[in-house]
Amino acid sequence: MTVTTFLWLESGAEEAAALYTAAIPNSRITSSTPGPDGRAFIVGLDLDGHAVTLMNGGPGHPLSDAASLQLTVDGQAEVDRLWAALTADGGTPGPCGWLTDRFGLSWQVVPAELPELMGSPDPARAGAVATALRTMSKIDVAALRAAHDQG
């Protein structure tokens, strides 16, 4: 059995595939099926071991933030790099590490340290981290650590 995330885009599957595989290390385009116009209709990707299929399906089924892809990364530099890549050219920041790229796909860019900080056995520290997180768009790891330490 194979499980693949399948995403219906209005258009731009080739461009989205290029962005995603450039931004996410160890990623590649695995297939491209042309449509009647000669442009890609369906594009297969491997995003660091996660199978994704993009389809240029036209209007009628827009993506929403009800589903997102989560990128758990090491450190602030990687949060910053991915945030910049995915919000470029029309992407929009959202709350608490979420963003929507220019193709309408929602992403969560999360530092690997976040679950540990939020899962502190000290309820005051965990609460302080959660409170700080709710004030952020792009996650600031140093601010989360400071909230934890002051909690």
UniProtKB/TrEMBL annotation:
Pfam families registered for this protein in UniProt: 3-dmu-9_3-mt
Xref: InterPro entries: 3_dmu_93_MTrfase, Glyas_Bleomycin-R_OHBP_Dase, PhnB-like
Domain PhnB-like as annotated: residue spans: 3-110
CDD domains assigned: PhnB_like
Signal peptide interval: none
SUPFAM superfamilies (UniProt xref): Glyoxalase/Bleomycin resistance protein/Dihydroxybiphenyl dioxygenase (SSF54593)
Taxonomy, superkingdom: Bacteria
Protein known as: VOC family protein
